[in-house]
Amino acid sequence: MRRFIIGGLIALAVLGSLGSGLGWWARRELVSAGGFASQTRSLQGRLELRASTAQALAATMESSRPELRAAAPAIRAAVDATAGSPAFGAVEQAAYARLQQQVASATSPLALDVGAALPLVAAELRAQGHPELAVLTPPASTRVAVPVADRGQHPVLWGALEWSARLWWLLPILTALFLGGAVFVSFRPLDTAAAGAAAIGGGSALLAVGAALAPAWASGSGRIVTQQFAPSLVAQSVVVAFAAAAAAGAGVLVALRASRRQARTMTAIRIADVRRALGPDPALALPAPPEPIALPALPEPTALGAGPPAPVAAGAAGAVPVDRVLDTTAPPDTELGKTLADLMQPVTETPLLAQRPERPPARAGDDGDGNDENAATEVAPDPWTSTFLPTRGAADST
């Protein structure tokens, strides 16, 4: 159903474009007095048209009086001379002006009225020595019609031309609305717009072909007039056809690019869906970062000569006896052994330990090593190292 709606709207847009082209051309070339005069100015002096005009003048004069019919050779000679005179040009110009009024007022049939040339024929008869025939010549008010076109022969064509000339301002708006409606309804707007432009271009090309073949449908003087007016309609239709074809080509290129982009997007979406369904690829997974290694905190370095460190009370939190640190069985070649050796380096090799006071001389009962078997402790604890090194008595008691 949607396709039928789109096709109908595009068909209406094509008809609207054809009507617009006909309307603009009719307003410019037929309805406008200036445009019509510029087209018919080149018709003046055409031998074929003047021959038809002369034949119409002679037929009118011969049918008006039997005497003139009897003098047909003299009448035809005078009419031919009149049609070739410069004064006959003003008569033709006035006849074309009246023809433009007939076209604008939809008069049928359309014909050139050259009755104003009858006085010129009478003057020519007098000049040729036929005053008796000049007296019998009909007056200038007599209608001498040179047929150009008959609306009754092509009523559809003339009706379309008349209505398009009246609705010349509305048809372009309707064309845009029809084409816009087809694009709005379609699921593929770019393709529909390109198809509509191509259809309008095809319709304009058909209109150009029809205008080029129009003189073949006419006859007599109408063929001559049609040959004069048809080329402008052909040129206008060709320009519209080329413009529509260019627009259709641009629309096709844009539609192809959009379809390729959409195809790439759909392919990427399908690939993402497949990957999501299969799960993550282990080969593409990033390795887990290594866990941080906790290093023991290093003691703050003590500047030399800054004095003894503040004594730490025995049993204080975080105090570790030196002998326990030294008695650790960690191998020295391991990382922990190296770290412990570095930590103990300031304690065992500090200059403050080298400056300890000398022990007092041994007394009776001393075994020479400063150990008194009768006393629990003979050497007072060093205030600088008592916190870290227990006395001998305390060590023995433990």
Secondary structure elements and pairings:
Layout: H1 2-31, H2 33-41, H3 47-64, H4 66-70, H5 72-83, H6 88-104, E1 110-113, H7 118-127, H8 131-135, E2 145-149, H9 155-166, H10 171-185, H11 189-217, H12 221-278, H13 322-326, H14 335-348, H15 351-354, H16 392-397
Antiparallel strand pairs: 1-2
Helix pairs in contact: 1-2, 1-9, 1-10, 1-11, 1-12, 2-6, 3-5, 5-7, 10-11, 11-12
Task: Give a concise summary.
The chain has 398 residues and is mostly helical. The chain has helices at 2-31, 33-41, 47-64, 66-70, 72-83, 88-104, 118-127, 131-135, 155-166, 171-185, 189-217, 221-278, 322-326, 335-348, 351-354, 392-397, and strands at 110-113, 145-149. The protein has 16 helices and 2 strands.
Order the strands across the largest sheet as they lie in space.
1-2
Mean pLDDT equals 79
Question: Approximately how much beta-strand content do the residues carry?
Answer: under 5%
Main sheet: strands, sense, barrel? 2 strands, antiparallel
Question: Roughly how much helix do the residues carry, as a percent range?
Answer: 55-70%
Oligomer classification = single chain
